[in-house]
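hey can u check if this looks right to u? its 397 residues, i copy pasted from the old doc so theres a chance i mangled smth
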Amino acid sequence: MFHNRYTNEHGGRAVIIGLLVVSLSILPIACGKDKTEKPAESAAEISATPQEEGATSTSQQKALQAIDKGLAWLQKQQNVKGGFHAPIGMTSLVVTVFLKHPEQKYSPDDPFLRKALDYIVSVQHPDGAIYDENDQPALPNYNTSISLMALSAAKDPRYDEVIQKAQNYVTGIQVADESSIYYGGIGYGSDPTSRDLSNLNIALQGLKESGLPEDHVVWERAVAFLNKVQNNLEVNKASWAGNDGGFVYMPGTEQNLDRISKAGVDEEGRPRSYASMTYAGLLSFIYANVDKNDDRVQAALQWIKDHYTLDENYGLGKEGLFYNYHTMAKALSSYGEPIITDSKGVQHDWYAELVDKLVSLQREDGYWINESDRWFEQDPVLVTAYAVLALETGYPK
């Protein structure tokens, strides 16, 4: 979620963390203060295969054990302010994963969660944005949108006004100028020069989960933006667009092809689709009330079938891997099909395979960490929150 701005402005590494992303858009998050010591080595990975009868129950058991182990580790990371690293979106993400436990083991009235929620509310600004100005860059959209998820998960009327103001802030920063290349997009909230799919996706997640009405104009505008970041010639008329159905990071022109996709360009010089943004695009279409049988949704799903893997964030290798797992779980859960048949005809019980993959990567103490440090995925608090939320999101309801 909180990831892309740091790459754009600082060449990859930064002193202060940046989600959510998302990112969300989401959607990029990490910590530059309160750093947890980096653990040493990862568990051996296992090969995910289609599941046999009874695997769902077994996967649920494995998922619960991994979730509980991860949450036990996360709870120990809380600081004296009630936060879990900086910026505030990190705290909001961690609060969300506690409140979304499949067996509802945690309550917003648990003292450590109440302290965290109070901290989130304490940094809301008069315009409704939720971020701590002491954390730079501020990333108002990421922080506010993820805070919307946490406050909504609390299901507590005392947060209704806070949620309403935060929704107004996020919808208010969407580009409403139809002549703009970024029409329908949402950016960081602190950078007027760009709008991207990661930021839009995390904003839509926060708005959807906090109950923004389906007839709000934000959804229609979002679809217009999504059309401009899908490699789909039926809807994307940009000269650089491809036609594989996948998604890139942001709209652009021939003059700035290097900004359009974080995965670079393909053999034909076109911005390359990659997994995390394609899952973000699929999820965004569904959240924006586009029918699952729509050609654009099906094109994105076909890209996923053609490039299905849990071994990497396809197009980027290990970079953004856990952000990809999190977004994959949300997108495929929202799409509603438990089995994905890849382009070779192999059927995948994607949740069972995701559980096996994440269990194989979990460290003995309960946390996860990525070997790649791009977008700060060597921060175990960020990565553990992504992993737990992926397991919770796909967990059978």
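Residues 182 and 245 are 20 Å apart (CA to CA).
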